[in-house]
Amino acid sequence: MTGYTGNEFDGVQIDNSSELAGVPDAFQRLWTPHRLVYIQDGQQPHADDCPFCLAPSMTDEKALIVALGKHAFVLLNLFPYNSGHLLICPYRHIATYDQATAEEISEIGSLTQIAMRVLKETSHCDGFNIGMNQGRIAGAGIAEHLHQHIVPRWALDANFFPIIAQTKAVPRLLGEVRREVAEAWPVADN
After folding, report:
1. Among the options 85, 145, 147, 149, which is catalytic?
2. Contact 54, 47 (CB under 8 A)
3. Which CATH number is 61's domain given?
4. Which of 11, 54, 154, 156 sits 20 to 30 Å CA-CA off 83?
């Protein structure tokens, strides 16, 4: 593989980027060669190994499921951006939102609202990032199975760890958060 490694580029020692060809611009650069795996082939699981298809057949604790609906379910993200990072997935193995039925869309919306209320109650968060990455090119970690992210946010939840140390500080254990959210989930709505 060629490219940037440490202070070498294609085997040539580079001590100062001004030695390279190019026109300076106003952009800062954050070099993250460890993320190359997300760009290249091989990151997507085989259809038989889809974690979102397998999750409902496991125990809620093992799959990190917090609520089951008729057309979709809610589980914690195994690799959370923040404590309480939830995913809402339809049971059907579909890749994009336009393939979802009206019933699936309605339930995903309803589960999103409930998740927001439960996370406000349990984590006292200040806001949310909610979204879907559609397809590999858009950054979907599991591109072949539709899922929506609900990430609770707090006024002071960002720090230097992800940039400097390539580390995300998540202050609570997944099992603890799953249990708390599942216990606070309204029984009549799931």
Report:
1. 147
2. no
3. 3.30.428.10
4. 54
